[in-house]
Amino acid sequence: MGECDCPRNARGAIVRPADQRVRVGREKRRKGKTVTVVTGLDPDASHLGDILRRLKSECAAGGTVAGDRIEIQGDHRERVQAILLELGYPAKQAGG
Known about the structure:
The protein has a 5-stranded mixed beta sheet with strand order 3-4-2-1-5, covered by helices on one side. The protein has 2 helices and 5 strands. It has a single domain, classed as 2-Layer Sandwich (Translation Initiation Factor Eif1), CATH 3.30.780. The model has no long low-confidence stretch (mean pLDDT 89). The protein has helices at 48-59, 77-86, and strands spanning 23-28, 34-39, 63-66, 69-73, 92-93. β3 and β4 (69-73) form a beta hairpin. It is an alpha+beta fold.
């Protein structure tokens, strides 16, 4: 049998998408710009680049990975939450 291809964190422990506490919120930036922020994803166990690519495509917006969080330009909380739920992450909205 080969190696398990399960997602693992930096310590090597298996971290499934359903085990991560993902929060989707929004922040106001300079000049009144709004940014949708996804936190709680494990940067080693989750492929943040792949998730970012899908979110940017589905929301038709720009975005970036900043440390261990994903930022999407604009207020797309409901859409981002729906996509993350589709991917198996138990995403909840944070803030107001």
